[in-house]
Amino acid sequence: MAKVLIIDDEAAILNLMSKSCRQQGHDVTAVQTGKDGIKALDTIQPDLMIVDLLIGDMNGLDIIRYSEENYPSTQVIMVTGNGSVETAVEAMRLGAFDYLTKPFELADLQRTVELSLQQPDAGAAAPSEQFQSAAITINTGGMIGESPKVKEILQIIDKIAENDAPVLLEGEFGSGKQMVARSIHNASSRKDAPFKVLQCSALPEELLEAELFGSPSSRGETIFSRAAGGTILLEEIHVLPLRLQSKLESYLEEISTRRIMSDLPRQMDVRFLASSAKPLQELIDAGSFREDLYYKISIIPIEVPPLRARVEDIEPLCEHFLKQAAERTGNKIPEIDKYAKRLLEGYNWPGNVGELQNAIERACAFAEAGRIKPVDLPPKVTQKVEITDEDEKTTHHLPIGSGLQDYIRKQEKIFIRETLKYNGGSREKAASMLGVSIATLYRKMGLKLEKDKMLSK
Fold first, then answer.
1. How buried is residue 239: exposed, middle or buried, by Cβ count under 10 Å (0-12/13-18/19+)?
2. Of 134, 289, 292, 432, which cross-links 176 as Cys (Cβ 3.0–4.6 Å)?
3. What homologous superfamily does CATH list for 1-131?
4. CA distance 362 to 360
5. Diameter of the chain measured on Cα atoms
6. Domain range annotation of the chain
């Protein structure tokens, strides 16, 4: 749980943002004037401040400036209905983590809050209470997970930590790409220098250009200059406009050339990492991503798997989140009964570990006698779709969140049985009618092929 201060003179917006942050489990202080905001800053020294640009009695930029001077570890999000590129650049130059323009979706606010609190300085006094949503979560320097893929990623990080070659992280939203990037940074000699994140999808094209390459109003400052000596992560690079892709490719080429020539100015001395929620090779084929930039940023590619592809990590992640919840409340760490555990491991987790953490938070709130049961889990984790097999007079249950392929496989088996029945049980005729090999028919039915019998024919 983080301490969040929200300053906005519009009561309705203030209440909405406050409710949203409380739903995320944070301790919220909400005020409507700049004077009260400064007083609250001095009193609670929050982990995060969300401030409106025009409050009435004070300019939001002045409050950001005061916060940066006196409480540099406080993360800042600026919110305004009078957005401009110049204002956004100035807010970020003063140290704001991000910038939201009214009206905005609550999901965007919650995601920005979540990401801001993952910054190294956010809630530094109580790191175990930071809100985390990455599929691979860093805890006292290590990653949580026992799956072969997590171990493989750890090995890769160990090998490339001191290599300044660009890294491309590909994987679904929430699969843990940012935390892998942080692990790379923390394992390198750059760990004491800044780690800066720029979300391509969160900014308009003009602001993206100013952040990457500078503008008159930014006084030449860019994310590269602010991360000098450290690491940059360009998130969701798949949405970067083609025009800016070309400029970025040229800029990265200049960095590479000057590094080889030992003529690298400090503002260019960075480790460049990029992440994408979509396979960039597919976007290249579609003409929406430049191939030359792809080869420039993917010298070291890392695929970050979704949670459903590493079920072994669900239990240790649950244990981690249960421990976090117990530390916040002062209660004993609850247990998960075997039926609830089975449901957690059988669910598809489309929201990855962020969704898992939310499920555990909810379960802790509803659990009785220190034991989490299926009834304590979110309905979507426990709800199932019924698939009736009339031939066998049975009903299969698939959890909501299961992949489409799971449903298709169940329906395939039913259809194959009906085809076999039509052909008097002849598997050869059924396979021919279905247009598949006899081996494929056996595999889809979940049967083992009698190899010796087949070889004797």
1. middle
2. 134
3. Response regulator (3.40.50.2300)
4. 5
5. 91
6. 1-131, 147-305, 308-382, 384-455
Check whether 440 has a pLDDT greater than 50. yes
Q: What confidence tens digit (pLDDT) does each residue in 55-104 have?
A: 877 888 889 989 988 888 899 998 877 555 566 667 777 778 877 777 77
Q: How far apart are CA 220 and CA 210, in angstroms?
A: 9
- 3-class state of residue 147 by DSSP: coil
pTM higher than 0.70:
no
**308-382 fold:** Helicase, Ruva Protein; domain 3 (1.10.8)
What does the pLDDT look like over 232-246, one tens digit per residue?
Answer: 999 999 999 999 999
- Burial status of residue 441 (CB atoms within 10 A of its CB: 0-12, 13-18, 19 or more): buried
What pLDDT is stored for residue 143 in this prediction?
62
Peptide bond into 103 cis (omega under 30): yes
- Which pLDDT value is given to residue 383? 66
Point out which residues pair with 386 in neighbouring strands: 397
Instruction: Write down the residue that tokens 């609550």 correspond to.
Output: 106
8 A C-beta contact, residue 232 and residue 178: no
Domains 1-131 and 147-305 fall in the same CATH topology: yes
Environment class of residue 300 by beta-carbon count within 10 Å: exposed (0-12), middle (13-18) or buried (19+)?
A: middle
Mean pLDDT (whole number) for 314-343: 88
From 10-24, 300-314, 328-342, 376-390, the region with the lowest mean pLDDT: 376-390
Question: What is the Rg, in whole angstroms, of the alpha carbon atoms belonging to the chain?
Answer: 26
Instruction: Evaluate whether 373 touches 337 at the Cβ level (below 8 Å).
Output: yes
CATH (one of 1.10.357, 1.10.10, 1.10.287, 3.40.50) for 384-455: 1.10.10
